[in-house]
Design brief:
Elements lengths: L1 E8 L12 H7 E4 L1 H7 L5 H11 L3 E9 L8 H16 L6 E6 L11 H13 L5 E5 L7 H6 L2 E4 L8 H16 L5 E6 L17 H12 L4 E7 L13 E7 L2 H17 L11 H10 L6 E5 L14 H9 L4 E6 L1 H10 L4 E6 L11 E11 L2 E3 L10 E3 L3 E6 L4 E5 L9 H4 L10 E4 L6 H4 L5 E5 L36 E3 L15
Parallel strand pairs: 1-3, 1-4, 4-5, 5-6, 10-18, 10-19, 11-17, 11-18
Antiparallel strand pairs: 2-3, 7-9, 7-20, 8-9, 12-13, 13-16, 14-15, 16-17
């Protein structure tokens, strides 16, 4: 038995101007054939779990295609078409394939495909045929569409946010594929997609209110006849019809079991929907809280409005200005600012120079930081993370990087490429000790927590403006469903009307090895 591996990952913030291009994917990774295996084997990604799990089951692997770009604006039409053509071309030339393992984000939007993940799975199903299994993993922040459910035998989402279980979900998907190909199980799935969206700030899976959904999902997953149960948190920064939260259950040839499971979960979410109201501190309140924690260790300020993991540029200076105004903190902020990084590098370590830093994208209300700085350190910007961290990434490249300090004591890391703050190695590779600061500005919401809770006794969500800000009512949606809670608070919810059934393939899939 031979299983193909495909990965296409992008989280598209449709409120960002501009478009994501092929060059953005090439800058992260755009791979075919053996290069896919070389990149993922031994890592923490779900595709790493695919390779490991299939090998453990004694199945042959066909690495086909993998592409990823940093969270950013919607994907341009020509790039989306190019990616799909490359993917299908690799599948078509791969020879006999018995099944597909696919890693998608679930919140990819293109100019010509608002549901790019659904379009991807629809084309893969057409090429694969109806009788071969296709199992797909999803980010917990997916916006699941009916097409995604109908085209696959099983959708399996990450269970943690911060995302630390990606490899485990890959292993789960590979194990399910092996059991399906052997004829041991026949997966069928159902999804519930209620008219409700959860704000990012309420999506930490280890804390309430989200924890109650995962506790129930864990109990349901133990029922006989169920193979997998997933909670879909959703990605509210994509203005598409399917934006919102939901649930997926996979059963062993018992669609009624799957439907009952997701109906129960959707009922709990709808009953407890008011628990998920947005909550974060205003800037000054966050700094007051940080002052009250002085002496306990550095305080992490999670900059919601400039969340790199949600597509924001990472060049916002609002919190940096507020820290400087207080004149009592040793603060650290990382800003994506290629011109300033280049200027500092040309000046050299130890140099004094006048510089403007941050706020170049035009998406933030605060002005650049301006004044005299000292260049403390220069670094090529590459670093590695050995532990499982949000995103499953091991190798990072923030480009040529400069660390400077202002006369007021603020330390600024200037990077050439955007990088999510998910690894302490981002600081330590540049000789920065987190313990040496009173406050650290983190351009994320939950993604930084796994790494930074090791050094920050307190982490505060801060309600800052920007293209990833707190609260759905801050965005001018044009394509979303209506009604959709909490934007419409009095809309109805008939759970049965939100159910979608998945693909049903051949009863006996074993020993099928004709080319797709």
């Amino acid at each position: 038995m031979r299983v193909g591996i495909i990965s296409l990952l992008h989280e598209s913030n449709t409120f960002l101007p501009g478009l994501t291009t092929l060059a953005d994917f090439q800058r992260d990774h755009l791979l075919t054939g053996q290069a896919v295996a070389d990149y993922f084997i031994g890592g923490h990604h779900e595709a790493s779990g695919f390779f490991e799990g299939l090998a453990a089951e004694g199945l042959s692997v066909a690495p086909l295609f993998a592409a990823r770009a940093m969270p950013s604006a919607a994907i341009e039409a020509s790039t989306a078409d190019r990616l799909l053509d490359m993917m299908l071309g690799q599948l078509g030339s791969a020879g006999p394939i018995d099944g597909l393992l696919v890693a998608l984000h679930g919140a990819a939007v293109a100019e010509n495909h608002p549901d790019l993940d659904g379009a991807c799975l629809t084309r893969l199903r057409a090429a694969l045929g109806p009788d071969r299994p296709m199992v797909c993993t999803l980010d917990a922040h997916a916006n699941v569409s009916p097409a995604m459910v109908r085209m696959t035998d099983a959708l399996i989402a990450y269970r943690t946010n911060p995302h630390l279980d990606q490899r485990d979900r890959g292993l789960e998907a590979a194990g399910l594929m092996a059991r399906t190909l052997s004829g041991d199980v026949r997966p069928v799935q159902a999804a519930a997609l209620p008219p409700l969206a959860i704000g990012i700030e309420s999506q930490h899976t280890g804390r309430q209110p989200a924890r109650q959904l995962y506790d129930l999902a864990d109990r349901i997953r133990r029922r006989e006849g169920l193979l997998s149960v997933s909670v879909i948190l959703g990605f509210p920064y994509a203005d598409v019809v399917e934006m919102g939260s939901g649930f997926i259950a996979v059963s062993d040839d018992r669609p009624d079991f799957a439907r009952r499971a997701v109906s129960e979960l959707a009922g709990l979410l709808w009953q407890r929907r008011e628990d998920f109201a947005a909550g974060a501190l205003a800037v000054e309140a966050a700094l007051d809280a940080a002052e009250s924690c002085r002496g306990e260790g550095p305080v992490g300020l999670l900059d919601i409005g400039d969340n790199v993991g949600g597509g924001s540029p990472g060049d916002g200076t609002l919190l940096a200005h507020a820290i400087l105004k207080r004149k009592c903190f040793r603060g650290l902020v990382c800003l994506w600012d290629p011109p300033a990084a280049d200027q500092a590098r040309r000046a050299g370590a130890g140099a004094r120079l006048s510089i403007r830093m941050g706020a170049r994208s035009g998406f933030q209300p605060a002005p650049p930081l301006e004044g005299e700085v000292t260049v403390v350190r220069l670094h090529p910007g590459t670093f590695a993370e050995l532990q499982a961290r949000h995103g499953g990434q091991s190798a990072f490249d923030m480009g040529p990087t400069a660390v400077v300090t202002t006369d007021a004591g603020l330390t600024v890391m200037l990077t050439t490429h955007r990088v999510m703050p998910v690894s302490l190695a981002q600081l330590t590779c540049c000789g920065l000790d987190p313990a040496g600061f009173d406050v650290i500005v983190l351009k994320g919401v939950h993604a930084p927590v796994a790494a930074y809770q090791e050094v920050c006794p307190r982490l505060f969500l801060v309600d800052t403006p920007g293209v990833t800000r707190c609260g759905l009512d801050a965005f001018a949606y044009r394509r979303r469903r209506r009604p959709l809670y909490p934007l419409e608070r009095d809309g109805p919810c008939d759970i049965e009307q939100t159910l979608v059934d998945g693909h049903r393939g051949a009863p006996d899939r074993a020993h099928r090895s004709d080319p797709p």
